[in-house]
Amino acid sequence: MKIGFARLAPAIRTMAVALAALLLLSALAKPRIVAAQSSTLPMTISLPYFIAENPADIDLARDIHRTVAADLRRSGSFAVIEWWRSDVRAQARLSGQVARQGDGRVKIEVRLLDNLDNRFLTGQQYLTEVENWRRVAHDVSNYVCERLVGKSCSLETNDQK
Predict the structure, then answer these.
(1) Got the DSSP string for the chain?
(2) Angle, CA of 104, 109 and 114, to the nearest 5°
(3) pLDDT tens track of the chain, all 161 residues?
(4) Partners of 95 in the beta sheet?
(5) Contacts of 52 (CB under 8 A, 6+ apart)
(6) Per-residue b/e over 63-89, b at no fewer than 16 CB within 10 Å?
């Protein structure tokens, strides 16, 4: 069965006109900007207050929490939300716990989660003398930066002991 060019020409013309119309419409459409993977926007991280295992360590847990939150904000890589609720859609969540040991040292545990998938990413424990809490808080901040943005944030203050 032969189909002549004369019979195909109208169909080809119709397809060409439709294709031209699609191209014109796509050229006139407003561009959409998707910033999901942009390195210029800070990552949202939920940072609930650190838990003190002993009521005597509440101030220490609060100070560590505040230092970590300030470090992450100062890095420019994170938008810190200092509470956690199920309706907060931060990309990551860092939780922490402070426990005084029998020998007087303090154990600081942190857990980093993918908040959108509610999935554990990593955790870290630090065992130190109480007076070194600020150094450990900066180490926690750097640990978070390395894990989530792939580089150290080099976070320190001049008031370290």
Answers:
(1) ----HHHHHHHHHHHHHHHHHHHHHHHHSPPP---TT-SSSPEEEE-PPPEESSGGGHHHHHHHHHHHHHHHHHHSSEEEE-S--TT---SEEEEEEEEE-TTS-EEEEEEEEETTTTEEEEEEEEEE-GGGHHHHHHHHHHHHHHHHHSS------TT--
(2) 170
(3) 555 555 556 666 676 666 555 544 444 443 332 334 445 689 999 999 999 999 999 999 999 999 999 999 999 999 999 876 666 678 999 999 999 999 999 999 999 999 888 899 999 999 999 999 999 999 999 999 999 998 887 655 544 43
(4) 111
(5) 58, 60, 61, 97, 98, 99
(6) ebbebbbebbbebebbebbeeeeeeee
Question: What distance lies between CA 3 and its chain's CA centroid?
Answer: 61
Task: Look up the pTM and report it.
Answer: 0.70
Q: CA 80, 159, 49, 94 torsion: positive or negative?
A: positive
